[in-house]
Write a structure and sequence with these properties.
The protein is α/β, with parallel strands linked by helices and about 160 residues long. It has one domain: 3-Layer(aba) Sandwich (Rossmann fold), CATH 3.40.50.960. It has five helices and six strands; from the N terminus they run βαβαβαβαββα. Strand 3, helix 3 and strand 4 form a beta-alpha-beta unit. Helix 2 packs parallel to helix 3. The structure holds ligand DLZ.
């Protein structure tokens, strides 16, 4: 089975992010990884035309807090999309499952509650190496992928509201 490179995409299929305002919530847990995801997301948004002033980055303690951090963006900031970035690494207890369940269900709920893209940029890996491989390593950067999803979903929404 081949593993997708998260940073490879058809550039011609990505609309411009000019004028787009994006919130990024970053988990401080496994910050060595999540800071790289954030770097990838910011760079990708800028590459497609978003400005620094329109990219707002905030931090939460762990991935479990990502949905609430993202909800604050929806409530208190005028953003087109919110990107949730985290890294949950499997340990010896079922904690991993509870965190993953919480953040994934929370993100789905936000999408539907606010009718706005909330992008799931959370790595869920068996070990640190798998996370490094997907945070600017041999399989690219999930932050890049999350930024592209945010741009595409914002464009899709605007295609209906024009
Ligand atoms: C407690 C915890 C554990 C064990 N592992 C992770 C992890 O791998 N990745 C992550 O983002 N957060 C972890 N956390 C912290 C929880 O997400 C959360 O911050 C705390 O349980 C407090 O609600």
């Amino acid at each position: 089975m081949t593993t997708k490179n998260l940073s490879q995409y058809d550039i011609s299929s990505v609309p411009a992010a000019t004028g787009m305002r994006v919130g990024i919530v970053v988990s401080e847990w496994n910050f060595e990884i999540t800071s790289r995801l954030a770097g990838g997301a910011v760079e990708t948004l800028k590459r497609h035309g978003a400005t620094s002033e329109n990219i707002i980055v905030k931090y939460v303690p762990g991935s479990f807090e990502l949905p609430l951090g993202a909800q604050y963006f929806a409530e208190f900031e005028n953003v087109d999309a919110v990107i949730l970035l985290g890294c949950v690494i499997k340990g010896e207890t079922p904690h991993f499952d509870y965190i993953c369940q919480g953040v994934s269900t929370g993100t789905t709920t936000l999408n539907l509650k606010y009718n706005k893209p909330f992008i799931f940029g959370v790595l869920t890996t068996n070990n640190l190496q798998q996370a490094k491989d997907r945070a600017g390593g041999k399989y690219g950067n999930k932050g890049d992928e999350a930024a592209i999803a945010a741009i595409k979903m914002t464009h899709l929404k605007h295609s209906f509201s024009k």
